[in-house]
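$ ./design --mode recover --in tokens.txt
reading tokens...
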């Protein structure tokens, strides 16, 4: 895997899927365990979704998504043009429509934080991401630790055709997705 990757994306919801695919491809190509790829993909989705929902784009009209690898630590980050408020973990109650994103990031990562630099606000998270070659023997990529189930194996978790969206959830039907694609 490259030591670091930088991707500039439009300040648009479609960028979340693009970022997940690019990050996942890089991590898989480098031999990172599947469970780490899953966790990193959820984290980048949450960080990017928050930037799109709450912050302005960078002066270029884009958001910057980065990931870098040092030793066994992976840092994923999203930079935007900032917002009126500082990113912080919300209460995320069961009845709330939102507010759980940074709680999810906190649960899946070793830590997260906010940097302000060059007119940009960067929210980052770090997670332990050993390569399979770092372990003795030829352990399969999925053996690192307990992982989320592979949703591709469940028909009710497959991609669904486009429908009307209401309040960022499927209108008229509960979605089977554990997290956005």
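writing sequence...
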């Amino acid at each position: 895997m490259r030591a670091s990757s930088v991707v500039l994306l439009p300040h648009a919801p479609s960028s979340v899927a693009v970022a997940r695919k690019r990050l996942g491809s890089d991590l898989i190509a480098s031999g990172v365990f599947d469970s780490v790829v899953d966790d990193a993909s959820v984290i980048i989705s949450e960080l990017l979704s928050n930037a799109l929902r709450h912050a302005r784009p960078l002066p270029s009209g884009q958001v910057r998504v980065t990931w870098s690898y040092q030793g066994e630590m992976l840092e994923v980050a999203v930079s935007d043009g900032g917002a009126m408020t500082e990113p912080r973990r919300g209460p995320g109650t069961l009845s709330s429509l939102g507010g759980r994103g940074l709680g999810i990031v906190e649960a899946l990562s070793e830590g997260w934080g906010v940097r302000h630099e060059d007119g940009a606000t960067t929210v980052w998270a770090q997670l332990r991401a050993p390569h399979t070659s770092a372990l003795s023997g030829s352990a399969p990529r999925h053996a690192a630790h307990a992982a989320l189930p592979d949703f591709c194996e469940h028909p009710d978790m497959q991609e669904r055709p486009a429908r009307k969206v209401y309040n960022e959830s499927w209108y008229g039907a509960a979605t089977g997705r554990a997290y956005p694609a």
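exit 0
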